[in-house]
Amino acid sequence: MTFELPLWNPARRAARMNPSILREILKVTDRPGILSMAGGLPSPDTFPVEAMRAACDKVLRETPREALQYAASEGFMPLREWVAKHLRGQGMTVDADQVLITTGSQQGLDLVAKVLVDAGAPVAVEAPTYLGALQAFAPMEPIFASIPSDADGPLPEAVAALPHDAPGTRFMYVLPNFQNPSGRVMPEARREALIAAAKQARVPLVEDNPYGDLWYDTPPPKTLASRWPEGVIYLGSFSKVLAPGLRLGYVVAPRELFPKLLQAKQAADLHTPGFNQRVVYEVIRDGFLDQHVPTIRDRYRAQRDAMREALTQHLPPGSVWQAPSGGMFCWVRLPEGCDAVALLPKAVDEGVAFVPGAAFYAHAPDPRTVRLSFVTLTPDQIHTAVAIFGMVLKRHLTEDQPEPTP
Amino acid sequence: MTFELPLWNPARRAARMNPSILREILKVTDRPGILSMAGGLPSPDTFPVEAMRAACDKVLRETPREALQYAASEGFMPLREWVAKHLRGQGMTVDADQVLITTGSQQGLDLVAKVLVDAGAPVAVEAPTYLGALQAFAPMEPIFASIPSDADGPLPEAVAALPHDAPGTRFMYVLPNFQNPSGRVMPEARREALIAAAKQARVPLVEDNPYGDLWYDTPPPKTLASRWPEGVIYLGSFSKVLAPGLRLGYVVAPRELFPKLLQAKQAADLHTPGFNQRVVYEVIRDGFLDQHVPTIRDRYRAQRDAMREALTQHLPPGSVWQAPSGGMFCWVRLPEGCDAVALLPKAVDEGVAFVPGAAFYAHAPDPRTVRLSFVTLTPDQIHTAVAIFGMVLKRHLTEDQPEPTP
């Protein structure tokens, strides 16, 4: 007996799910000996292993039954209160009952898309933007609107022109601090202009802030959420200041949206592991991050500085880049005629990896861009990696261009 | 300046997200002093706290950097291998590369719906069925087809009649072992008949098996997946045999579906906490569950027996129920004229809680049904709780029916 029809019929949205280029690259570059500037992997030297061990022990001694049982979908209340207080300290207006604990801030993106995105509705994103956000939103089948950006962030006039009429631009996704991938921080004036433009267009914002604490020169301006509480969903994470393997993030939502986000959370995984929430709360409750985060800043600042020096030294003329003042990434535009995707295998052959910038665009990728992470390698390794990268790039330019620009 | 239009525009699917009745009831019944037969909360006495503590310590001593770093979306390979071997031991044909580790098996339901369900496509469910599955599927906007069931499970003739033509019944969701909420186990003959009917209709199956290890009389027949590997997605969980607060489950998928489920997983939360995966692997790797699960069975068997005795003693005539041979729940049909939703507040007033069965139907709820969990309370508490439940029920029958049936 043969059948004409397939047994399994994937949903239409499945066609919009694709392997993460980034994660595929990470697999290749996981090989021993590869100097990887590809992944945004925090340095494991920053993981507070001793504090974690003490906290695990304490939680399993004092509240094992609560920590290992099913728990509230909203999250562990003391942790929600900590988050609210922490954000109030940064000028935001937040109560604990607006804080939803998520399984990493990636889950926040998934929940936001589920609650706000209908198939065919526009969602505005920066160009370039965080690849994981594009992947989280895509299954809900939005039409992406790419907002052109300059060195200060998305252009307010493009935001002001976003449509509000049905089906309505459901939100604009924006990463104001040390953006992944571009590294740029949005200055005070651009934040104000962006908010004004978003209000004018009646387009609410989803503000993603995983890197805000990782500033190396001066702290970034106040969050967008602090300027427009009713118009911004705010996403935060413990991945960069503690450890990503715990998968702990949070969403702060305007009150009118919180119940639907909570229901989406219940349906998605019932709740984020209560054990992890209690362990992290034990680690941070008495001000641990006040001492810990500055040590991360010092480490990454030195690595950022090493990358700045190395890029200055090794990149060929025609390369455009700016050292970021925070975060994890340096964004480089290669000389004319370069294709970063074609460059990658050549770099990997020489033992160096990076991410072609094309991965970070919803439309019209710029093939000349690359994202270099400076948080995983030591300063010495960064010097070596960038030297090799520069060497491969120069060779690539010579090979591919019969008459190379000097 | 006033605006006519709302700032936030929820997606159409948000209208299908509702507060979990179950979780709302759990909040009420969390009050101290309430004897709750409502939640399916495993007894905390079964949580292997000492083994967990030793495992946390070992993981944080030996592999802290790996356990706390970003990790593969597929899951921790040794844990995937353990799952595959464990399932092969139960007669299934599974390789580790078909095992996707999920953030609880609830997430498996979310991923399956994302990959397979288009708005308006039919999804078949049992009547009654697991509420959390209805909630996980609903955001993808299926049309539910409720399959009538008898004491052996869903009726094969109803399954055989499911439509395969476009948009196609995307799958039938089925819980063969000690179903939540009904407690029934599907016998061998019904499994074979169900598979035959599903093959005839070309409707694949999603088999959810959180309770399979919790048998108290005889082990259940072989899984559906072992009978039709290419036509069944299988979901498993560590919540009932270790602890739910770790949020660890898994999906076993036919090879053609695995890549899309993996991509949906990446987009949903990048990966399940690697720390939790490594800790659980440490706990179970050397056969811990072979000793541990029988102790859970002994405990719950005694509680099941207590509930059987108490129900026999305290339920009024006209009540219909059968003690389950495994799992966590006893399903009771109350005498004619009873409305379990109306009964609940009266029971709570007397210090006892349960879940009205109406919550577990996609269509046409039976208002006379209730679900009673026997895993959270001790045998003595079960006797007390059921005695109060019986007393409230008898009073309810007298109050609401001027001429009560004797």
From TrEMBL, chains A, B:
One of its GO terms (biological process) is alpha-amino acid metabolic process. Its cofactor is pyridoxal 5'-phosphate. Keywords: Aminotransferase, Pyridoxal phosphate, Transferase. Residues 48-387 form the Aminotransferase class I/classII large domain. It is an enzyme of class 2 (transferase). The keyword Lipid metabolism does not apply. Its EC number is 2.6.1.-. InterPro entries: Aminotransferase_I/II_large, Class-I_PLP-dep_aminotransf, PyrdxlP-dep_Trfase, PyrdxlP-dep_Trfase_major, PyrdxlP-dep_Trfase_small. GO terms for molecular function: pyridoxal phosphate binding; transaminase activity. Homodimer. Belongs to the class-I pyridoxal-phosphate-dependent aminotransferase family. This is 2-aminoadipate transaminase.
